[in-house]
Every structure is written in structure tokens, then in C-alpha cells.
Specification:
The structure is a homodimer.
Chain A: E1 5-10, H1 14-25, E2 30-34, H2 60-73, E3 77-80, E4 83-87, E5 93-97, E6 102-110, E7 114-116, E8 132-133, H3 136-139, E9 147-151, H4 155-164, E10 170-174, H5 184-192, E11 196-199, E12 202-208, E13 215-220, E14 225-229, E15 232-235, E16 239-241, E17 253-254, E18 257-258, E19 271-273, H6 285-303
Parallel strand pairs in A: 1-2, 1-6, 2-3, 6-19, 8-15, 9-10, 9-15, 10-11
Antiparallel strand pairs in A: 4-5, 5-6, 7-16, 12-13, 13-14, 17-18
Helix pairs in contact in A: 1-2, 1-6, 4-5
Amino acid sequence: MTTDYQLVIIGGGPAGLTAGLYAARAKLRVLLLEKGIHGGQITVTDWIDNYPGFPDGLSGFDLADKMAAQAARFDLETKNANVVSLDLAGPVKKINLEDGLQLTSQTVVIATGARPTQLGIPGETELIGKGVSYCATCDAPFYRNLEISVIGGGNTAVQEAIHLTKFASKVTVIHRRDQLRATKVIQEKAFANDRIEFIWDTVVTEILGDKEVEAIALQNKNGKKSTLAVQGVFVLIGVRPNNEVLPLDQLEHKNGFIVTDKEMRTSAPGVMAAGDICWKEVRQVVNAAGEGAVATLAAERYLEEPSRKE
Amino acid sequence: MTTDYQLVIIGGGPAGLTAGLYAARAKLRVLLLEKGIHGGQITVTDWIDNYPGFPDGLSGFDLADKMAAQAARFDLETKNANVVSLDLAGPVKKINLEDGLQLTSQTVVIATGARPTQLGIPGETELIGKGVSYCATCDAPFYRNLEISVIGGGNTAVQEAIHLTKFASKVTVIHRRDQLRATKVIQEKAFANDRIEFIWDTVVTEILGDKEVEAIALQNKNGKKSTLAVQGVFVLIGVRPNNEVLPLDQLEHKNGFIVTDKEMRTSAPGVMAAGDICWKEVRQVVNAAGEGAVATLAAERYLEEPSRKE
């Protein structure tokens, strides 16, 4: 079988870059496709304290840069391109690019990532990493003794509100309905926690602050407006898979996230997935990177399978 | 339930240190037990080029140091101690130390690691990282245009011998029997590769070299001795789980490696495993670290389960 590549990696975040590093070091004919700049979500992450190996933490941009430089050192071929569609059935995988080019590859690692659901209000994007966060596990310790708010009413939002009280002096949960969606036991824990307050039937209309978050503008269901002074806003209303170009009819998925086994193999032979696009509980930089390595090594084993010929 | 700890982590390699980093940042009552120095296997790894984030690579010792310093920054409590036995059945996990102390914990992360099977011959340990390697995925690119040998005859040994020919100018496979254990198709690939030579019915009796590997001393089944000049020796005769203190009757395992689900939960409720001790295909620093993070977050979810009370 002659194809352009042995492996095409789609996405240049930590998972894709690590998959690329491993593939380049293994001298595969590999191409990494990235539609924007390297790094994926982490490039908009102000400071990362929990990627192991950096005792003082580092900026997401810096980490992305280092990962890209490392892959480049081993001559990873990368291309800035928008993928418009994929055909992953059969032994030759086809990757169609926006410019009309069709690439072929024997294996594919899907590392397109996910994105937090945003509120879509003024001030939100501008203040990411400056008081606006989408990940309590990542950022909670930055809010020691500060007053913050959590937006949302599901399990994640309420659990993380409880978690955040280990750090913040006060956590105000703002929910657009008059009751939480979170399971009863978690609700009870939150109600019993005297550092947590609730504002019901209310939406956030704007995040206020010049260089950092200073307050949020609220509006309740009767149209009444108010302002709440906070130094942090955790928007915890869900995460969405970046699956727009993926052929979901060819891949087992749950809620649009790709299902893999422990070796990061999807339901389509020769197709692996890694990082936040996968159906899983934990979405952190370090396990995304780990999965990238595992995915490439699974691709290598697939390429060596007896029944396959190049 | 009152226990000494919410989480005890056993082992201070990349998996354990990352589990500890996540647990300390989450403000769990956590203790990391390590019998030697921090870092596990990586402290004897001369140079690591494939841990993402370090474009020029770094020494294993240095990486271990950085990981430990990062966990310490978040006040991870650690203790140098030999665990002699564990009781992981029931809601209170018991950890018995050599000095007679018994610790109790609600959850445990097992991160005791694994070790490559060594030849156990003179020169081997002394020259680790100086030409002696147990991991082709990690170290192959360091042997560009050099002559090396691979010790072993199983699938891993023969596959890695083929892989190593992408870098080394010549690879001599030394096997103690007169035929390989590797599957037929892999054997055929190796036999067809003109950079690979085989020496049969022969064992390595010593690894020679002052500061770096220079040669290996061989002895065939008839007692005939010889020397082969090589600049690298890949010892690929298996990997052994560090499971001596684990209660294997309480944990599902395969060949002594602990079986987990994708969230790193073992068959024992409240017990997670991470890193090389796990039953899996890929044993690299970055996926060990990723699993450590996932294991701690699984422990947190377990601690929050409705049916549990502290």
C-alpha cells in the first residue's frame, strides 16, 4: 500500500505534539496538521502549575512553545491547514484539506481537543487567565483567600464550588434556574458549606474588570440588575468536543467524544485518539500528553501487524 | 470514618510524584511513601529526550528533582519508609511499615513501578545510561550510525532490533537459544533486514568499557569465548513489576501487573494504580505522570461518593 504518510496527527495541542514527538523520534513518515498556532487550549492558559517538571509553573504559551520546539528538534513535519473532512474506513485513511488537497495515511491520531462552553458575554474572553477560569482543578490554588463566583448548577459546578472553598474565602454560585441539577448528596454538601452562597434565577451578563476580574454584572429573571464584586469567575457549564470535522458515523463516540481503549485505539482500525477529544473523566495537560505517546506507539504496533503490507 | 490519611501514595517515581502533586494541590490529607530517593527508575536514566516540555532533554535525576520540588511547593507530605504489607480490602486501607508503624487511609494509589529484567553480569549496572539501555523507544536516537547489540529473542527484542536499524549502522542480536521466541512474521522481517546479524546459542558474560560501553564478552554453548565491539547494548529480556509488598489476592492482576480501568481504578474499591506497575503496553515517563494525575482525581471522586462518610 502506498500512501503519503504512515501517520497523520490532527491537532497540535499537548496530545498532538507529544504524539508527533514520539512519531518523529521513531522515524515514521508523519505529518502533524494544526489549524492555528501550536498548543491548542493551553496557549490561552495564563499559568500552568500542575504540569509535572516545572516547579514554579509556566505559561501555557511557553509550554506549548517548548513542546513544539522539542518535536521540531526531531524533524516533525507540521502543516498549517484546515481539515474539512476525513474518511477513516478502510486501510487508507483520507484527509481532505480546505485548499482541496487530499492526503492519505495508514494511521491517524485524532487530537482535536475540546473547548469549555463559554458564556459568550462581554469581558469573558478578554479576562481568561486574569480571573476567568474553566478548570477548578487547574486554578483553584490561585484564589487563596479571595472571593469568587462559580457559574453553573450541574455536578461539576457544585463539586468544584465545594472544592474551591478550600482556597477561596467565599464562593457564590450563580445559577440561571431556581434549583441545581447536581445530585442530591452533592447539593446537600454545598448547602451545608458556610463559605458557599447561592444566587438563583440569575444570569451573568458581563464580566467586569480592567486588567483583572473585579466584578460580574447580574440580571435575574425579573430583569433586575445588580453587580457582585468578585476576583475570580469559574465558568463550569460544560465542555464541548472539537469534532466538527470528524466522521462520527465511523467512530464510536459518547456525546461526541471519541471512545478509545486504554491503548487509545478507537473503534476504527488504524485510528487512535488522544487528549481532550476522548471520552474520559480527566482532561489535564499531563494526561493528554501521556495519551499522545500511547497513541503513537499503538499506531506503530498497527503498522507492524502481520496482515498489513506497505 | 477516621483514618490517618485520605490518600496514601506508594512510590515516588513520576506516577507517584504527579499523584502527589495533584493531591497536595487539592488539599487532600495525603502522604507519599518512598523507600529510596525520589524519582524511581528515571533517576538511573542518563538522559530523557521524550518527556514533553524539555526541548533539549534533561537527565532523569534532574526531572525527578523538578517533579519532587513541584510537589513540595504545594506541601506534599512525604516519608522515607519501607512498606512491608498492605491490606486493601474494606473501607480502611492499612499500610504496614518496616518500623512497625501502621498507617490507615481511605484511598491508596499504588505507584511502585517496574524494573527491567537485568542480565546480572559485570559492567551492566555501572554502564546504564552509558551505552546500556533497557528501552529502545527512549534511547534509539542516541545510537545514530553506531554499532550496537540487542540481547533477547522475544517479540520486544526482535521488534526493537528492527526499530534500532533506523538509527544504528549495525545491530547484532544475541540470543541464548538457537531460535527466536518472537512471532514468525517479526522474525522474517528481522532476517530480511541486512543491518541485523544474529549470534545464536550465546550469552553475554560481561559488558566492557571504562566510561562508556566498548564491547561485550560472549560465551557460546560450547564454552567458546569471544568479544564483540559495540557502542550500545539493549537488554530486552522483559520487565518485572515491583509488586513484592502488594496483596495480589486483593487486586486483579496479569503476570503480576495491576489491572486498572481507564480511570486507573483497580478491582479494589478506593485503590488506584498508576505508572509502570499497571498492566499496559506503554511504559514511558509521560504516561506514568498522566496516570498519576488521573489516579488522584479518581481517588477524589471516590472520597466524594454519597455512600461514604468521613
